[in-house]
């Protein structure tokens, strides 16, 4: 029989293992079976704990903490459906490579498959969406089992942090009594050091790339999430090669402080409209495809005269165009820096100049439109980007919000960090993920750009802002429904088919939502007013909601107007 | 290549298959990949569709529809994390045997494992919590494939409805273009008839039971969900045997119109306090254990002088006490009726009388307490039970709400149907499940009894009430936190450990929640006022929230006062 003291030792040693490999934060959802682990985490000085009743929001909050801190984060819940609520965030963590350590607690073996209350099969609960599933042993206090508990805590946390990073699930069968012995020492005694190597190419492999790229007409295409530091390295590489760089907001190319006319903002707008006399000889892709569908179609249109390089450390072959001819499996930043060092001569300026022309023509076209001078969802999104403070953090929601930024914003040299959930692009959990981001740097400007459906989907997450005084500024683009569908083929449908299934207006008064959770509320009436409010957030972060009332149809008309203007200006009819 | 017309035929034929086996309702969450199925379901006259943006609430709503209609219900969502949001409701459906047909849509094979947007591995997404996982073929229009589509729709729906009922998951890979051909005939042309047999004992097996039970000192223990009709059959059986019947609210024994002094309401209060001179010779259990922990402990204390029969059609051996000596694998109602017909002589009245005495003593003890005459969470729960109209529907949440009803309510002869989510007993999805129940019989009195944490957890579900004008009366027991933990061992903790992890006050003004979703709001100030409001709901159902402000500590004190009074009255010290 295991007594309270043995259980406490065993679980405490497991926690020490997690701490040794870098866990500093844990998000706990209340429950009975999880009591001993909850109390040990809560009492542990080296771990900051957050409590959230809704496990779905709790898991997305942990995702946000880990994204903004680049550290592994632990999650803890009780047995039963509680754990199933983690699933959406786990799928996103798996796809976007975020190291979450998911701790579920369970009935012990003798209470399984017998109809015990709040019990269900938790083995492999998250299927292929975790890197590992581990059923822990029933707590025992022998040295062998303490070593085992420590080892698992240390090992799984490190495994979650190895490339490709991702979530790991541990299931703890626990017997009653569930109260741990809190009089024991809970100080951390064990530690293991890890020197982690990274994938790097050999000198010979690097020189092959240099030979193939130097002086060629090339394009860098950077997708996926990148840090500001990585973004600057990519721009440096583009400048060294004299190649245009196409990316999207998540790559942080337009939000880092390095400016360059090679940064092809607006690529989504012009790339399908230009008369491309010369196709690139080389395309070098880093990470996933950028979000722009037009960029994807342009890449797809390239023929065998273009050689496609795909730099992907994970080796997961995530190239949906299946064009990769040279796969470079190496850490991206180290690789980019190594190449930059070795390139001796640039590609000719004529190659660069045509790209810069297209980009500038697009900028002029945008400047001419009266719609760009009044408040709407597009201009509000642009303004958010412009008004981000140095070292601020912006979380951008899926569907329309990120597309507005991708299509319409250029480099502002303001050096802020943009985050999103672009692993699987769900509209779920956005509020909680943004609040996790905010909790890592609450003293900075923290902004969330989000639509009304995503806001509604994760409204529960706002309780975290209320409980932990998280000063997030929410810019709510409210077009009362699913604005993205007005851009897709579904728009061809009859209104009586379209509105109930795709339009889905929800008619919520979001000022009440703000009031419910204690956020300040402002309805933006003009661009000037929005500008003032956003400027204020740079100096004085606070929990507030700024509602921008949009119109689904207007967004589409503006986009179409830009495209038709560019068709004229850029030559394609 | 499959064209739009072929895809339409294939999916339409699948829908016909589902209709043939009984699907009449579908809950759809908006998305792009699911477009053709969404439109076909929406346009299908034989299927009533509901739309809900939050897939978690959508799935629980479907669960409620199926629970109240006893029919299979289809669920549809797009690819990605959308489907993962279904998981909590699917786990509950699996454990409480509810036939949901889960349709997820997916990228086709050529867009899998390649980093395509909004794509993830959806194979066996719900692990062991569905009866089957089926990857459908890419739509094709040949006769062979139309037969296949029909057969799968018909077969899986029937399979979901076979004992033990449960959810089934079908994944549809769909290629663009995603718009179906809506000009084709969408009328239902195929149908298959099903004559479903049920497990019944042989004459010889029945006579063995009769011989073993007749004139013996026995107890019927009925747990799990039962219809009013089944409940009446169980009471008839108890009367025929002259045995007490112990159950819980979900069994609907105290809410059906058949009254009997053998119905042991209050068993949770008295069963551990009585001096039981004679242990039963026979215990016959139907379904899961009742929710009362004291009843469970009493059963556990029985020794080999008691023979335990366990009637369970599913054959799943869900007996957490592992006491079953005779397992009866037969349909419960048919079995109970057959036994009732065969019993010739009753057990002596002395056996019955001691149980009736205990029950009456408890009733007196409750009547003496002043706390039972003022408004608190306990008396509010009792009043809800008393004020349910004939054929009304009550949904009761987990944790405290169902325990208040179980401990403190007796038969009122009012014939209403009580529902709950007692498969895994989560506090998630309660609002949506109750609204699903309400949507089946919106003209009747529909009430939800729920605590504040469960209310918060599924607040999003309220959008369904707003959109579909569902006249649910919500009685909110608001003790500002996790009231159940004040009854458990966690109460021994220091306040600075208890409150943040278990107490978890959320400090929400629920009148704002009511306003947000368009519900009328009343704060109950007295029992008399609450009575009037509840009586009004019998005549005029409407969407409203009645808040009863509770106190976690008071609930415990009242319970302890009852128990200590009974200790004195019933002899155990």
Automatic annotation (TrEMBL), chains A, B:
Pathway: Quinol/quinone metabolism; 1,4-dihydroxy-2-naphthoate biosynthesis; 1,4-dihydroxy-2-naphthoate from chorismate: step 2/7; Quinol/quinone metabolism; menaquinone biosynthesis. Its EC number is 2.2.1.9. Residues 12-124 form the Thiamine pyrophosphate enzyme N-terminal TPP-binding domain. Coiled coil: none annotated. Keywords: Magnesium, Manganese, Menaquinone biosynthesis, Metal-binding, Thiamine pyrophosphate, Transferase. Residues 412-548 form the Thiamine pyrophosphate enzyme TPP-binding domain. It comes from the Bacteria. It catalyses: isochorismate + 2-oxoglutarate + H(+) = 5-enolpyruvoyl-6-hydroxy-2-succinyl-cyclohex-3-ene-1-carboxylate + CO2. Its cofactor is Mg(2+); Mn(2+); thiamine diphosphate. GO terms for molecular function: 2-succinyl-5-enolpyruvyl-6-hydroxy-3-cyclohexene-1-carboxylic-acid synthase activity; magnesium ion binding; manganese ion binding; thiamine pyrophosphate binding. Binds 1 thiamine pyrophosphate per subunit. This is 2-succinyl-5-enolpyruvyl-6-hydroxy-3-cyclohexene-1-carboxylate synthase. It comes from Candidatus Enterococcus palustris. The gene is menD.
